[in-house]
Amino acid sequence: MRRAEVIVVGGGIAGLMTAIALARRGARVELVDRWEPGHARATSSDYNRVIRSIHGRDVFYTRWAREARLRWLELEEETGQKLYYECGTLILATEGHCNWEDNTCETFDALGVPYQTYAGVDIPTFFPQFKVDDIKYAIYEPEAGMIMAHRSLIAGAALLRRLGGTVRRGRVVTDGEEYPMLDGRRLEADLIVIATGPWMADMFPRTVKPISVVAGVNVLYHSTPDGSEMFDLTRMPCWIDHGMGSFGLPSVEGSGVKAAVVIPDKIDLDNDERLIRRSMVARTRQYIDRRFPGLVGQKVVDSKFNQIIITPDTHFIIDFHPQHGNVLLAGGCSGHLFKHGPVFGEFAAGVGLREYATADRFRLGPRRKLSPAESPSGR
Ligand SMILES: Cc1cc2nc3c(=O)[nH]c(=O)nc-3n(C[C@H](O)[C@H](O)[C@H](O)COP(=O)(O)OP(=O)(O)OC[C@H]3O[C@@H](n4cnc5c(N)ncnc54)[C@H](O)[C@@H]3O)c2cc1C
Questions:
Q1: How far is the CA of 344 from the centre of ligand 1 (A)?
Q2: Is the CB of 32 under 6 A from ligand 1?
Q3: CATH code, domain with 233
Q4: Is the backbone peptide bond immediately before 376 cis, with ω within 30 degrees of 0?
Q5: Looking at 310, 339, 373, which one is the last position of a domain?
Q6: Domain total of the chain
Q7: pTM (2 decimals)?
């Protein structure tokens, strides 16, 4: 049987994992990116990303995240690289705003996901790094933690090559009909997967732009106290702090403690210097001082300014272009795609090869904003 010819555009986690899944299915895969996979502008680039199954009432993503954890463990074996640290994740439920966390517990009970809850007053006994006088309770998910993001991209590109795929540099643009072109010519392949992350909005002004917003996010890494292991991942979990619009990860491989207070910022994807906004240093420090007394006085040792593309319902996009039956759009990050990467790639590959239809939630549109109770991200 003839092997399908596939071009995947974009070497972030969505494109790489889709390319790997297509290569495993026997397709001849060429991956094209403007820059080298792992480059600093991609949404997927940073030391690490949180993996957790906590998705409120949303059974679909909870299942995907559980499955993804297994796939990451397999990828570790296959690539021989340390990709996943199972340090657990702690979700802090703020007094008076606990719907999303309450819903998560119900979903976990229904699906048999391991977790533990701690009353606010007990949290410091088990997690002494946290000061939580405004927190009603916390959910601790032990089979969760962090994926080493940059390393996963490098290992993913190497794995794709091992599976017979090729990786090349090139900037794909779209013509007036939103058909992909490279070097002045229309791309020709049985399947063209567009996984260009936030750049997808401008490439598809009629199809993707109306259902997406691109926002900058500032992330800061703080030093850990001299001589102390208290903020290392061996002692501290990742955390999500919805009430304070924040999340973070413990120090790993010397990175320092990562914390982000998510205040969507403007970003020009191609022209902005990727420098942290000064105002965010003060905002993040305020947060750190309030939540982690042991980090008061610690210094910012690293930072990252990159971006997310968000759909109104925070569901991903995996759908064929309405006018071009061989062009599959695959992305829609919404702040939570990385952890699902291997499962997302598997699913997108099957849709792309027409083995099954996409899920309704991943169709292009129209999309509607969900209430925090319905939303998989609690936002
Ligand atoms: C601060 C922050 C924290 C996050 N935390 C988490 C988390 O804890 N857990 C989690 O699961 N997710 C998290 N996310 C979300 C996750 O990182 C993203 O959803 C995911 O990385 C998106 O991957 P992508 O492949 O769609 O996009 P990208 O990584 O941006 O990849 C797109 C690629 O396409 C290429 N490209 C663009 N245009 C073209 C073109 N015209 N031609 C050729 N190539 C092109 C780019 O160069 C890039 O390499 C976070 C995101 C941010 C910003």
A1: 13
A2: yes
A3: 3.30.9.10
A4: no
A5: 310
A6: 2
A7: 0.98
